[in-house]
Amino acid sequence: MLRAAVWNAWTQPDLFAQWWIPKPYLCQVESFDAQAGGGFVTQMSEDGKSFVPHMDAAFLAVDAEERIVFTNAVDSTLRPANPVPVSVTGEVTLTDHVEGTLYRIVARHADTAARAQHDELGLLEGWSLVTAQLAELIED
């Protein structure tokens, strides 16, 4: 995977919607401003007709083709939030690798209880699924 392609999939709403939520669910991007202080709002659907809220989050750092930090601890308008089921801050880093791009995402939680709750809800499985979808999108 080329780093620019991964970056585009993270920063272009039409591409982001194609991998952000595990299939068979569909993603709809309501708003998307990939810059520090910008926000994004996504919805999800099982049937493609009825969409429900998925995430209302803010970008904290957006360093071209290197790093994205986002959180749902504040919403897309930078207001403090209490997201359900858990707040998380994600940091994505991209670096060149001999075989393409080294893609790393770290999820940070307020405490061990929040981390345990997110783990119980399938954090690792969910990120593994969407990362595979991201790779599939880019490699096509």
Annotation keywords:
six-stranded antiparallel beta sheet; alpha+beta; 35% strand; 140 residues; Alpha-D-Glucose-1,6-Bisphosphate, Chain A, domain 4
Description of the structure:
This protein has a single domain, classed as Alpha-D-Glucose-1,6-Bisphosphate, Chain A, domain 4, CATH 3.30.530. It has 4 helices and 6 strands; from the N terminus they run H-H-E-E-E-E-E-E-H-H. The protein has helices at 3-11, 13-19, 112-120, 123-139, and strands spanning 26-32, 39-45, 52-63, 67-71, 89-97, 100-108. Helix 1 crosses helix 2 (13-19). The radius of gyration is 15 Å and the shape is globular.
Quick structural overview:
By secondary structure, this protein is an alpha+beta fold. It has helices at residues 3-11, 13-19, 112-120, 123-139, and strands at residues 26-32, 39-45, 52-63, 67-71, 89-97, 100-108.
H/I helix tally:
4
- What amount of the residues lies in strands? 35-45%
User: What's the N-to-C terminus distance?
Assistant: 10 Å
Rounded mean pLDDT is: 96
Q: What is the CATH architecture assignment?
A: 2-Layer Sandwich
Biggest sheet, strands in spatial order?
1-2-3-4-5-6
CATH C-level category? Alpha Beta
Rg over C-alpha atoms, rounded to the nearest angstrom:
15 Å
Major sheet summary line = 6 strands, antiparallel
Instruction: Assign the structural class, choosing from mainly alpha, mainly beta, alpha/beta, alpha+beta, or little secondary structure.
Output: alpha+beta
CATH topology: Alpha-D-Glucose-1,6-Bisphosphate, Chain A, domain 4
Model regions low in confidence, pLDDT < 50 over at least 5 residues? none
The share of residues in helices is: 25-40%
Shape field? globular
The number of domains is 1
For the record, what is the CATH homologous superfamily label? Answer: START domain
Number of strands: 6
Order of helices and strands: HHEEEEEEHH
